[in-house]
């Protein structure tokens, strides 16, 4: 995770930047999908990768025979995203998350405290006050923990911008759904930016399955191209 230290008098805050890491992916994922699909029709005599793989996967996506995409999985580690972001992400119920726990992780001891600074606030007159009040929340949190207030209770004072590391696993069908709704220009800017990073990875790792997603780098979004 990249971060930028901000000094303001005695206040030191860390402004987090998100990063994604592909931890695992189904080996030969697109061939696995093709062979699973060919089981439906017992058409193994047509198996002739890579040409047959591209032809079949594009056909099943066009015909919305998406269940065969569930045979391939990918796991990502996401750092530098806020708890506001993770609250949105974990709404995807067909995705499996494992998230950093504020009940057991102690800021200033287990890990450094950092926070996401929204671009609109960063460019506004409120930036310094935002960082100052965030720092006050962290100091109050530490004061309560030192006074034996349980971490699970002291955490209530922490802002929604507090970062939270998370690992997610999902099948390719679910990732397509996530990217379709979360990379949309109307999606919240933070989840959109992080999902765009994951989409970039998946377009490299499984280019046929995610070929119909067009990334608009200028507008930091992506759209699904209907064939």
Describe the 3D structure.
The protein is an alpha+beta fold and 227 residues long. 39% of the residues lie in helices and 19% in strands. It contains eight helices and eight strands; from the N terminus they run E-E-E-H-H-E-H-E-H-H-H-E-H-H-E-E. The strands form three sheets. It has a four-stranded antiparallel sheet with strand order 3-4-6-5. Strands 1-2 form a two-stranded antiparallel ribbon. Strands 7-8 form a two-stranded antiparallel sheet. Helix 1 packs across helix 2 and helix 7 packs across helix 8 (189-205). The model is unreliable at 1-12 (pLDDT under 50).
Instruction: Briefly note the structural class of the backbone.
Output: alpha+beta
Order of helices and strands: EEEHHEHEHHHEHHEE
Q: What general form does the structure show? A: elongated
Q: Give helix % range.
A: 25-40%
Biggest β-sheet description:
4 strands, antiparallel
How far apart, in Å, are the first and last alpha carbons?
37 Å
Report low-confidence residues grouped into runs of 5 or more. 1-12
Mean of all residue-level pLDDT scores: 93
Number of helices: 8
The total count of strands amounts to 8
């Amino acid at each position: 995770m990249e971060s930028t230290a901000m000094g303001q008098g005695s206040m030191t805050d860390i402004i987090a930047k998100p990063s994604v890491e592909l931890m695992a992916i189904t080996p030969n994922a697109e061939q696995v999908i093709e062979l699973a699909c060919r089981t439906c029709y017992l058409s193994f005599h047509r198996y002739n990768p890579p040409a047959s793989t591209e032809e079949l996967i594009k056909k099943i996506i066009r015909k919305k025979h998406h269940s065969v995409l569930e045979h391939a999985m990918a796991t990502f580690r996401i750092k530098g995203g806020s708890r506001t972001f993770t609250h949105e992400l974990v709404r995807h119920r067909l995705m499996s998350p494992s998230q950093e726990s504020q009940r057991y992780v102690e800021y200033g001891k287990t890990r450094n405290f950092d926070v996401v600074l929204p671009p609109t606030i960063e460019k506004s007159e409120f930036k310094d006050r935002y960082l100052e009040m965030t720092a006050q929340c962290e100091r109050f949190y530490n004061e309560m923990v030192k006074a034996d207030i349980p971490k699970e209770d002291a955490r209530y004072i922490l802002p929604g911008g507090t970062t939270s590391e998370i690992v997610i696993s999902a099948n390719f069908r679910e990732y397509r759904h996530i990217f379709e709704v979360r990379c949309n220009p109307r999606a919240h800017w933070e989840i959109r930016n992080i999902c765009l990073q994951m989409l970039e990875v998946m377009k490299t790792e499984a280019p046929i399955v995610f070929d119909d997603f067009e990334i608009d780098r200028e507008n930091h979004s992506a759209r699904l191209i209907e064939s």
